[in-house]
Amino acid sequence: MTSEQVVSRVAGAAGERDENGSGQDASEGYQRGLGNRQIQMIAIGGAIGTGLFLGAGTAISKAGPSLILAYAMAGLVIFFIMRALGELLMYRPVSGSFSDYAREFLGPFWGYVTGWTYWLFWVVTGITEVTAAAKYVQYWDKSIPQWLSALAFTAVLYLANLISVKLFGELEFWFSMVKVTAIIGMILIGIGVITLGFSDAGDTASFSLLWSDGGFFPKGIGGTLMTLQIVMFAFLAVELVGVTAGEATDPKKTLPKAINTVPWRIAVFYLGALVIILSVVSWTVFEPGVSPFVEAFAKIGLPAGAGIVNFVVLTAALSSCNSGMYSTGRMLRDLALNGQGPKFFGVLSARGLPLRGTTVSAAFMLVGVWINYQWPGKAFEYVVSFATISGMWAWIMILLAQLRYRRKADRGELPQSEFRAPGAPWTSLFALAFIGMVIVLMGIDKDSRVSLYCAPVWAAVMVASYFVLKARNPQAFARKDYSAGTAEKAAQVEQAA
Questions:
Q1: In angstroms, rounded to a whole number, what is the distance separating the alpha carbons of residues 405 and 85?
Q2: How far is CA 6 from CA 44, 404, 412, 495, in A?
Q3: pLDDT score at 311
Q4: How many domains are there within the chain?
Q5: pLDDT number for residue 7
Q6: Given this model, what pLDDT does residue 376 score?
Q7: Among candidates 460, 95, 140, which has minimal Cα distance to 307?
Q8: Cβ distance 273 to 237 under 8 Å?
C-alpha cells in the first residue's frame, strides 16, 4: 500500500482533524475542556469505587485472604483490556469510543448494541452508587431514609453536570484526590500498626494473619473463583477514560499516560490496601455489606478514623455516579449522530454539553430512589450483578474490535497505532477467555445468576429494536466505509502529522 493510500485511509477513519491534530470528528462539537491533570485523576479514580470500598466486604467473607490473588488475576486482565483500548484510541480518538469501534470493525449492529448497553450499564451503576452512598450516610444517622439520601445525591450530581465539562473534570479530580490520599493514608497507618504495634489492634496485627486463620485459601480455590464477579465489578469504569477522548485537550499524550498507570494503580490501591487491611484485622471479622475499610478502623480503635473513611467511601460512590451522568449523555449523543438513537439526543447546549441525554439518563437513575424505598436492605445486591454483565459487554467489544483492527493494520489496510498493545493478539484472547470464565461462574452463583436472566431479555429488546429501526432507516445501519478519504482530508492529515 502506498503512503498516499494509507494517509487517505487515516483521513477517512479520523474525519477532519481539529486544529490540534487530535483526530476528533469536526461534527462532534464537544469542547476540549479536560486537561492532563484531570484525565490522569479520572483514570485513577475510575478504578477506585464502591466495588472496592463496599463490595470487598462480601468478597473477603467468601474468599478470605485469597481475595488478593483474585484481584491480581483480574487486574492483569484489566491491563490487557486497557492496552487494547489504548491501541484503538490512538488509531482514532472519538467520544463514541468502543461503541464507535464496534460499529467500524464488527458492524453497525454491534455498535448499536454496545452503545445502548453501555448506556444501560451506567444507568444501573448510577443506581448502585447512589444506593451505596445512601448506606454510608446511615453510618452517621440511621434515621435518615435511604431513599431520601439517594434522591438528594442524584439531584446534586445532575445539576453539576449541567454546567460544563470542566466542572465535571474538577469534581472528578477532587473526588479522586480524596480517594487516593485516603487509601495511601490507610496503608501508612496500617503499616504503622503492624510494625510499631500502636492502637487496639497492635498486639495481634501481623502479616501472618494472611495465612494463619484457616490458611490463604480458607474457603478453597472454588471460593476464590466465586468472588471474581465481585472483583470484576470493582474494576468497572476503568474504560471511562476512552469516553473522554473527544473532550481531552491532547488525547495523543494524555490517554497513553493514563492507561499506563493501570498496573501501579491496581498494585497500590487494590493489592496493597487489601494486604494491609487483612494483616491488621483477621479476615474472619469482615461481614457482607459492610465496608472493610470502615470496619478495620473501628477494630483498630480509631472511631474518628472510621468516620473519615466512611466519608471517603461516600465520595467514591458519588464520583462513580458523577461519571455515569457524564458518560450516558455522550453515549446517547453518539447513537443519535449515527442514526441509531433518537435525534433528540444529538443536540448540544451552548456550553457544548449533551444535556438532553444527561437529563433522560438522570431520570432513569431515579429508579434507584424507588428501589431504595422498596428494598433498602437488598438494593445494592439487586443491581450489582446486572451492572457487571452489562459492563463486561463493553470490554468484550473492545477486545474483539482491537483484534479486528490489528489484523487489518498488519495487512497494511489501516495505519498501525502509535500505542500498540503488547502481546496482542494473545493477551486479548486470554482476556476474552477470562471474561467468559467469569460469566460461567456467575451462572453457577445463585446470588449473581439474576443478571444472566436479565441479559437475554435485554438482548431480545436490542435485536427487535434493531430490525425495527433498520427497516425505518436502512442508511443509518449500513456499514460505513471508514477508509474512503478525500484528497482534501488527506492533505489535512499530512499537515497535522
A1: 11
A2: 35, 17, 8, 14
A3: 84
A4: 1
A5: 35
A6: 58
A7: 140
A8: no
DSSP-derived 3-state class of residue 346 = helix
Q: Classify residue 493: in a domain, yes or no.
A: no
Question: 228-235 and 55-63 are packed helices; what angle lies between their axes, rounded to 10 degrees?
Answer: 150
Q: Which domain holds residue 353?
A: 33-469
**C-alpha to C-alpha distance for 39 and 33, rounded to whole angstroms:** 10
Q: Supply the mean pLDDT for the chain.
A: 79
Q: Which residues pair with 34 in a beta bridge?
A: 248
Sign of CA dihedral 426, 428, 434, 436: negative
pLDDT of the residue at 31: 60
Angle in degrees, 0-180, between the axes of helices 165-196 and 303-337, rounded to the nearest 10: 150
pLDDT of residue 10: 37
Q: List the one residue out of 395, 401, 403, 479 whose CA is nearest residue 101.
A: 401
- CA–CA separation, 180 and 226 (whole Å): 28
In a domain, 22, yes or no: no
CATH number at 134 reads: 1.20.1740.10
pLDDT (tens digit per residue) in 301-313:
776 777 787 788 7
Gap between the Cα atoms of 324 and 45, Å rounded: 13
| Residue type present at position 318 | L
Q: DSSP label at 420?
A: P
> How far apart, in whole angstroms, are the C-alpha atoms of residue 462 and residue 107?
15
CB 75 within 8 A of CB 271: yes
177-201 in b/e form (b: 16+ CB < 10 A) is: ebbbebbeebbebbbebbeeeebeb
Give which of 161, 152, 148, 93 is closest to 122, Cα–Cα: 161
Distance in angstroms (rounded) separating the CA atoms of residues 433 and 440: 11
Q: Residue with C-alpha cell 484526590?
A: 177
pTM for this one?
A: 0.83
**Confidence band, pLDDT 50/70/90 cuts, at residue 404:** very high
Tracing cell 473532550 back to the chain, one arrives at: 247
Question: Among 41, 43, 31, which residue's Cα sits nearest to residue 241?
Answer: 43
Query: SS in 3 state form for 37-58?
Result: HHHHHHHHHHCCCHHHHCHHHH
Instruction: Cell numbers for 215, please give them.
Output: 490458611
Q: Which residue has the higher pLDDT, 261 or 152?
A: 152
Q: Give the per-residue pLDDT at 77.
A: 94
Condensed to tens digits (0 to 9), the pLDDT of residues 47-98 reads: 676 667 767 888 888 899 999 999 999 999 999 999 999 999 888 877 667 8
Query: Are 129 and 318 contacting, i.e. CB atoms less than 8 angstroms apart?
Result: yes
DSSP3 helix / strand / coil % (the chain, rounded to 5): 75, 0, 25
In the chain, the largest separation of any two C-alpha atoms, in whole Å, equals 74
